[in-house]
Amino acid sequence: MNILFAFKAEPDSGMLAEKDWLAATEDTRGPDTALLRCSPGADEQAAAALLLAQRREGCDMTLTALSISDERAIHWLRYFAALGFDKPVLLETTADLRFAPEFIARQITDWQRHHGADLIITGCQSSEGQNGQTPFLMAEMLAWPCFTQVERFTLTPPFVVVEQRTTTGLRRCRVRLPAVIAVRQCGEVALPVPGMRQRLAAAKAAILRQPASSDETPNVQCQKLARPAQRRSATLIDGATAQEKARILWNDYLRQRMQP
Fold first, then answer.
1. Taking residues 89-93, what's their average pLDDT?
2. Is CB count within 10 Å lower at the N or C end of the chain?
3. H-assigned helices in 68-125
4. pTM (2 decimals)?
């Protein structure tokens, strides 16, 4: 079974200082994330962990890890190679892909049409654009079924059994391949850590690198940036002494919360 795992190495914007966010609102370029550490999202890490767990259980599969990015994705492609992915692929581009789900979907589907895959697995959404459209666009382009909010899946070729979170609870479906699955991280699986021997071997692993299609490079222009004010509601406790303030805090707030 050929499985294509598509991920996006995203910069950790939480590492930016307050002054960087304030400076970003002065123009339309956004904060500079060029030097930030990049990593796949939590959803994508959960998807990779589920794939590797089933390989350990004896499921016969060929795993391809694909990313559409620049040099910053190389580290994670080698990381996935160290974990056991058979073919790391980098579609190189320097374009801003934060809000270009159609471009990303077309690149992945073009790869699938030329190399073949029975199953395409992604995360539900990225932490940058957060539009959640890419899996659905891929499924539409390929005329495949698409399942999102998937917490677990089990491969039983030619079927895949998915456990999908819905508004009414957990739904379990048995689907004939091919299909597109968007995994949601639910805190029950974690990405394994490769050993030193696997890391050294992956450092020399060949990564297939080819340019992404330039015919449809997205031309997304930011028109305005605004950072919403984050304010916390609070109640001031008035009292003549610290002991009086502590008594008011206990009587009015803490006592009710500590009742058995």
1. 92
2. C
3. 74-83, 101-115
4. 0.79
Give the C-alpha distances (Å, rounded to integers) separating 48 from 52, 123, 250: 6, 10, 48
The answer, yes or no, to whether residue 143 has pLDDT greater than 70, is yes
Residue 38 scores a pLDDT above 70: yes
Residue 87 in tokens: 């073919």
pLDDT above 70 (res 216): no
Per-residue pLDDT at 90: 94
Q: How far apart are CA 224 and CA 73, in angstroms?
A: 28
For 13, which DSSP code?
Answer: G
Return the DSSP state at 236: P
CA distance 35 to 122: 25
Environment class of 251 (CB within 10 Å of its CB; exposed 0-12, middle 13-18, buried 19+): exposed
The answer to whether the peptide bond before residue 101 is cis (omega within 30 degrees of 0) is no
pLDDT at 52 > cutoff 90: yes
- Pairing state between β 146-156 and 159-166: antiparallel
Collapsed DSSP state (helix, strand, coil) of residue 64? strand
DSSP state of 177: S
Residue-level length of the chain: 260
91 with 33: CB under 8 angstroms? no
Share of the chain above pLDDT 70, in %: 90
Determine the distance from the C-alpha atom of residue 240 to the mean position of all C-alpha atoms in its chain, rounded to a whole number: 52
d(CA 162, CA 104): 24
Paired residues of 183 in beta bridges: 123, 150
Can you name the residues that pair with 4 across neighbouring β-strands? 64, 120
Residue 89: pLDDT above 80?
A: yes
Beta bridge partners of 38: 11
Rounded distance between C-alpha atoms, residue 25 and residue 41, angstroms: 25
